[in-house]
Amino acid sequence: MKNKTTTWAIDPLHSEVLFKIKHLVISTVTGSFNKFEGRAVSQGEGFDDAKVYFSIDVASIDTNQAQRDQHLREGDFFSADLYPKITFESTSFVHKGGNEFKMAGNLTMKGVTKPVELNVEYGGSQRSLQGVVKHGFEVTGIINRKEFGMAWNVVTDAGNLGLGEDIKLVANIQVSELVEEMKPAAAN
After folding, report:
1. How many helical (H) and strand (E) elements, i.e. helices and strands, does the chain have?
2. Is 70 exceeded by the pLDDT of residue 117?
């Protein structure tokens, strides 16, 4: 018997996409993207070898400071008008033991596509009050922003860079099975 294919959709009400970057070498600024969507396609039980697709609306960036958010949307950073989406498509999703997985894939940001490797911690599953099975994951990783054409920086009076080059990614994701709604039959 062939393994069942299941498509899992991200529940945006119970998920978040965060990033962290060093500021003035002494502290960390945390931001988020408020609009994103994605899905995972698994075969049989579990998520071994799942295929993951993810898309982020760049204009939804939020660092809790409007002027900084606007600068991040502009050409020094994301160029959101030209490149409105950040996308990720997995090439592998490998169980490493326990609740740990390693996910590799292609990340496209600001028109540049690079392979990245992310850590995934499986949080478990639970049936919602509506009877829907949900799964939880925490995805973490580090990417270098300069590799994606975001080299803007300032030098402080002490000679340090104003912004770090590495961006820490943290995504807390909840998925539920995507059920296609029944479409009415065409009238004859």
Report:
1. 1, 11
2. yes
The long-range contacts involving 47-52, CB below 8 angstroms and separated by at least 24 positions, are 47/93, 47/95, 47/101, 47/122, 47/135, 48/93, 48/94, 48/95, 49/92, 49/93, 49/94, 50/90, 50/93, 51/89, 51/90, 51/93, 52/88, 52/89, 52/90, 52/93, 52/103, 52/105
44 within 8 A of 3, measured Cβ to Cβ? yes
* pTM of the complete model: 0.86
Using CA of residue 11, residue 62, residue 54, residue 174, what is the dihedral sign? negative
| pLDDT for 186 | 47
Amino acid in the structure at residue 182: M
Which tokens belong to 70? 């606007």
